[in-house]
Amino acid sequence: MRRHLLLFDCDGTLVDSQNDIVTAMDHAFQNQGLVPPPRAATLAIVGLSVPEAIALLAPALDDEQRAAIARAFRSGSPSQQAAGGREGHLYPGAAESIARHGRDDRFALGVATGKSRRGVMRLFDQQGWHTYFATVQTADTNRSKPDPEMILTAMAETGIAAEHTLMIGDTSFDMAMARAAGVNAVGVSWGYHPVAMIRGGGADHIVHTFEELDAFIAGWLT
Known about the structure:
Layout: E1 4-8, E2 15-16, H1 18-31, H2 39-44, H3 50-57, H4 63-75, H5 78-82, E3 89-90, H6 94-102, E4 107-112, H7 117-127, E5 133-137, H8 149-158, E6 165-169, H9 172-181, E7 184-188, H10 195-201, E8 205-207, H11 210-221
Parallel strand pairs: 1-4, 1-6, 4-5, 6-7, 7-8
Antiparallel strand pairs: 2-3
Helix pairs in contact: 1-4, 3-4, 9-10
């Protein structure tokens, strides 16, 4: 039986972590005595690895200042530290979709995210997802989106070809990464980039709920 690889982005696709991300970024800039970027600007860079994101948010700063902001961002805000770094809230339908496909032998599940591996593992701990995912690709060990390295590594680890791989994400970075890797790309409308940007990144299809995503996956198999 041929297997298919479903690769999910995390923040903005599985997890609604926008308030946590903005709070952590605000704290990181304030930690260096700087005015935080606007909320919209912070959300626009979600999906990139931390160094690339901060370079876009603060192009006038030197490497040392950016590195300090990155360290403060990764540590989280004081309130997040006190809460134990919980990884936001799942979008409606996410838990059911992951469980359904994770138990289906026709699929291998994977993650391709700008999030740290520590953050992904914390999410898996919270949701009991460790047994569902065959491959986890993060910005710790791969080049940042939209470089295709995460997807290429995931396919190599699972032995699944590009034509049987689907990248699911909420940003133009996810879609551009999928295009560069030669895989199918589905954008979700509930995340951090508007639909026009997701389409511009190269999405083959846009879904608006996890129920629509599940239906698309079922049709993609035929």
